[in-house]
Amino acid sequence: MARFSAFIKRHRPALVRGFRDGIPIGLGYFAVSFSLGIAARNAGLSPLQGFFASLFNNASAGEYAGFTLIGQNALFLEIALITLITNLRYLLMSCALSQKLDPKMPFYHRFLIGFDVTDELFGIGIAEKGYIDPYYMYGAFAIALPSWSVGTAIGVMAGNLLPERVVSALSVALFGMFLAIIIPPSRKSRVVGAFVLLSFALSFITSKLSVFSSLSEGTRTIILTVSVSAVAALLFPVRDEPDDSQEVESE
User: What is the 3-state secondary structure (H, E, C) of 106-122?
Assistant: First the structure.
């Protein structure tokens, strides 16, 4: 008991600070995941299934794609691939975040931090001065992850109780979420905006062509996502920004 008390006393400041910074993230997650729960309900998931789906896959785009394919009785392989592709950006975030971890940090801390790397949690982690205290991240996770999971479960329950017209109307909120994701980067970069529009056009065209229409929606999405992103990366690679510290040293 004494060791536990000493442990809490030692890490409490980081846990409290992380929990405090995670509160606004948790509130936002609850609102978004409620709409995601509507999609889970439409796919036939129960509140408990929706809860665990969000608990183990804290990613809006990845979950929505997965729920959509589940509703279409897609193959497990399709669901796995589309989830992997839509969540690939988290691999890049994890690589960047790993540079903020103490080289002596044990593997289990790295594993637990890597489990819940999202856009918002990555943002507060990368903004930390010096090395990240893992207990700071755990404090943020403690409010963000349950909010996401509970919001999904409540969304499923609400979808089961509300009239079908209301459920259909709430489903539109997800499209608003995706617009909020793609519009800001499209406004910053004409290239990104052009490829977003190209993706929309190609998605519509392939759904009408007999060559592609025979494929499932999940397979078409996988092919288009990989193809369009590969072309964009080859034609318009992102240039590395110069490191200011290196410039100062060189001077």
Answer: CHHHHHHHHHCCCHHHH
CA 99 to chain CA centroid, Å, is: 20
The mean pLDDT values, 10 residues at a time, for the chain of 251 residues are 72 90 89 86 92 89 86 86 82 85 91 89 86 92 93 90 69 61 76 84 81 68 77 75 45 41
CA distance 14 to 20: 10
Asked if 142 contacts 121 with a C-beta cutoff of 8 angstroms, the reply is: no
Helices (H), the chain: 2-42, 47-56, 60-71, 76-86, 89-98, 107-115, 119-126, 134-161, 164-188, 190-208, 210-213, 217-235, 244-250
Closest listed residue to residue 118, CA positions, set 157, 90, 141: 90
Residue of 84, 80, 59, 58 whose CA lies nearest to 69: 80
Instruction: Name the nearest CA neighbour of 95 among 109, 108, 114, 81.
Output: 114
What does pTM read for this prediction?
A: 0.70
